[in-house]
Amino acid sequence: MITGIITAAREAVIRVVVRGPSGREVAVEAVIDTGFTGLLTLPTSLVGTLGLPFAGTTRATLSDGSEVAIDVFEATVVWDSRDRPVTVLATDGGVLVGMAMLLGFRLILEGAIGGPVQIEALP
Questions:
Q1: 40 secondary structure, DSSP code
Q2: Are β-strands 96-97 and 40-43 bridged in parallel, bridged antiparallel, or unpaired?
Q3: Fewer Cβ within 10 Å of end Cβ, the chain: N or C?
Q4: Per-residue pLDDT band at 65 (split at 50, 70, 90)
């Protein structure tokens, strides 16, 4: 099970460990974004720090309806105590966990500041 908390900014936040190909790991606070259909976004600076391999470029539609080109990289995330290979979108924003990461899992949260967030595998 993955656990987190609802922050004062009213965001559901969990901690995830992201690993690059050299084995270097970074633990990051990630916001769960159910409007993001991908797996994970990371700041471009962190992509560089981890030395993530480039996997191409994709087009993405932002919440305002605009479309942008975003670089895609490969990483490993420790997810529910297991290594999980993922594609990462490099952005200038924060770390987001999207709906593709939550497929096969149940998200439970209490909509209150300080409320618990739980992500557990579906049976």
A1: E
A2: antiparallel
A3: C
A4: confident
At position 75, the amino acid (one-letter code) is: A
Question: What is the pTM (predicted TM-score) of this model?
Answer: 0.93
Q: The domain spanning residue 95 has which CATH number? A: 2.40.70.10
Nearest CA to 34 out of 105, 113, 112 is that of 105
The C-alpha angle 34, 38, 39, rounded to 5 degrees, equals: 95
Domain that holds residue 68: 2-121
- Give the total number of structural domains in the chain: 1
2: amino acid identity, one letter: I
Q: Provide the token pair at 90.
A: 């490099």
Query: Residue 95's CB: how many other CB atoms inside 10 A?
Result: 22
Convert the pLDDT of each residue in 89-104 to its tens digit: 999 889 999 999 999 9
For residue 119, the SS3 value is strand
- Report which of 6, 4, 32 is spatially closest to residue 113, judged by C-alpha positions: 6
